[in-house]
Input
Amino acid sequence: MRLICFFNIFLFLVLFRKCTTCFEDLSNEILYDIFEYIDIYDVYQIFFNVNQRFQGLLIDSSVPIQIIITNLSIPNVELYYKNFLLPNKHRINLIHVSNPFIVHTFFLPSYGISKFSKIEILRVYDIKSTYIKNILDFLMDLPELYSLTINVIDNIDDVNILKKNDYKMIKIQVVV
Output
């Protein structure tokens, strides 16, 4: 909603005050304000290849990032991971994943969600219960994590896996 207001103000300035400017001429602070209202993947898709300034804005910032990944194809996941997620791993404080393929990919040793040590909140939706053990095994490598939400699409065969004391003190919520 605030993004629409911003664009209305911008449009007003351009049309009625004869202000001629370009989106690229906006200050970094204004661009960051705009980016807050757009899903970070969409920001990446739209702006990453515009020019080096926009690449720098997306990669060289210290602003925390919340990643929400739902429907990405295999090639897009790999590009997004390589070009955006890895360079920004120190900024990502929330990951929300609701695609079984992506969940599987994130918890492979070669990708390794443990590379994202600043994650505070991890939400994993629409997965098979067989992935729970793998996800919980990675928790020890996430020192900032305090909330984990897992939504499974089938029954959990071994409920005791959630009661292990090996996991650090985090809020774990499993929804069946």
